[in-house]
Amino acid sequence: MVSLADKYPRISDMKDKAIKRIPHFAAEYLLSGTGYDRAMDHNQEVLKNIFLTPRYVKGTVEADLRTKLFNRTYSTPFGIAPVGMTSLIWPGAEIDLAKLANNKNIPYTLSTVACASIEKVAPHLDGKGWFQLYPPKDKIIRDDLLKRASDNGYEVLVITSDIPASSRRERLRMAGVSVPPKINFRTVFQAAVSPFWSLGVLKHGMPRFGTMDKYQKSQGNNKIKKGYAGSQMDRFLDWQYLEEVRSIWKGPIVLKGLMDSRDALKAKDYVDAIYLSNHGGRQLDLAPSPMQVLPQIRKELGNDYPILIDSGFYSGQDVVKGLMLGADFVMIGRPFIIGLAALGSKGAEHAHYIIKDEIENIMEQVCAVNIKELKNQKVSTGKDFFLNYIEY
Ligand SMILES: Cc1cc2nc3c(=O)[nH]c(=O)nc-3n(C[C@H](O)[C@H](O)[C@H](O)COP(=O)(O)O)c2cc1C
User: Fold this and answer.
1) Strand 156-160 relative to strand 378-381: parallel, antiparallel, unpaired?
2) How many domains would you assign to the chain?
3) In this structure, is residue 176 part of a structural domain?
């Protein structure tokens, strides 16, 4: 029998199968960016143009991937980024991913707008979960969410900053995606030709906002009628708001979605880590890749302040590049869900295997015994792609 590693040696090898197994609206929800998909495509282009100069003559090397972050030692320097409505893409996804993360000793970030609730996912995380907050304008809801996350043992809070407005998501409109999903002839037809997905829905129930449903009344149902963009809560974020969250949340706080070094420098006074991201190219199509701003931000923040990064990391090679340019930890969104959609829970596990195995292999090839040594290799770029800000 052909092993998964032989059949699907890279994440990209699972993509076609994923697209075939899930309804068109779910595939578009997962794989689209916004606007002209420029930011999404560019994220990978940038990563492709980074190179690593190997060092040799160091004897036999056994790679140690363990990485310390916020007083916890994870088995690898990567984790699972928050993905809203994951069960719309693959029914039961949140629980599958939480179990995988717990099993592999990597962080799993549960989204505010996940289908499975804070309470339902918590038992699978063993007190090691991360909770992502879309900051609600309504502070009663905010405080209740923080309390629920903390009472249920989530230890790290990730606050997403890059959604001051909903994005246009043109491909989602064309695919008829709405959150929560509408039942109409088109969606029923798409579901009918995706039997594995439909069986999953029968087993796990229709995708809904597991955590946020509780507040539906206070949000007003009329928002739902506005379609995808309007269906998520009113959000608000400023520095004062962060200060208030700081006084409530006792564990580490990570600010996700920053891209400008001035914001990053300011954030240092408010949160425990920053998380560079352009939301996988789903928000602002004009945004650069976070990799383009990483070296400068690392320089300005100094070596000791934790920096996480995501957007376009599809392989162990990509993770290695993120680390080498100055990140401490790389978060991964779509690849785990591609694995789930292609092969169910064993596909998500396979995605983890691919990324980890590739990192290990690269470290052994360049004779780096641990992540610290890996970061000491010489890194170069094929093109001059770091941003040249124009002063005028
Ligand atoms: C389908 C989908 C839903 C997402 N939902 C959220 C969310 O609820 N909260 C959030 O902070 N980021 C969300 N993101 C962004 C991811 O956390 C992450 O930044 C992005 O996926 C990274 O890019 P990658 O998919 O190329 O790895 C979502 C991304 C995708 C693809």
Assistant:
1) unpaired
2) 1
3) yes
Where do we find the tokens 């993905």? 83
How far, in Å, CA of 373 to CA of 231, rounded?
Answer: 46
Contact 81, 156 (CB under 8 A): no
Distance CA 301, CA 17 (A): 42
* Cβ of 279 below 6 Å from ligand 1: yes
CA distance 149 to 151: 6
| Domain assignment of residue 197, yes or no | yes
- 97 within domain boundaries: yes
CATH code where residue 298 lies: 3.20.20.70
Question: What distance in angstroms lies between residue 242's CA and the mean position of ligand 1's atoms?
Answer: 21
Strand partners, 108: 80
- 281 Cβ below 6 A of ligand 1: no
Q: With CA atoms as reference, report the closest residue to 37 among 135, 168, 217, 207.
A: 168
CA separation for the pair 51, 280 (Å, rounded): 22
Q: Which residues are catalytic?
A: 279
**Residue 246 is which amino acid?**
R
CA 17/CA 338 separation, integer angstroms: 9
**Ligand 1 centroid distance, CA of 281 (Å):** 9
Beta strand 50-53 with 378-381: parallel, antiparallel or unpaired? antiparallel
- d(CA 353, CA 76) in angstroms, rounded, equals 11
Cα distance between residue 367 and residue 377, in whole Å: 10
State in Å: Cα 283 to ligand 1 middle: 10
What pTM value is reported for the model? Answer: 0.94
387, part of any domain = no
**What residues make up the domain containing 364?**
4-380
Q: What is the pLDDT along the chain (392 residues), one digit of tens a residue?
A: 889 999 999 999 999 999 999 999 999 999 999 999 999 999 999 999 998 888 888 888 899 999 999 999 999 999 999 999 999 999 999 999 999 999 999 999 999 999 999 999 999 999 999 999 999 999 999 999 999 999 999 999 999 999 998 888 899 989 887 766 677 777 777 887 888 898 999 899 888 899 999 897 555 444 433 434 344 578 899 999 999 999 999 999 999 999 999 999 999 999 999 999 999 999 999 999 999 999 999 999 999 999 999 999 999 999 999 999 999 999 999 999 999 999 999 999 999 999 999 999 999 999 999 999 999 888 887 766 666 676 66
Task: Give the C-alpha distances (Å, rounded to integers) separating 21 from 87, 247, 299, 324.
Answer: 14, 45, 44, 36
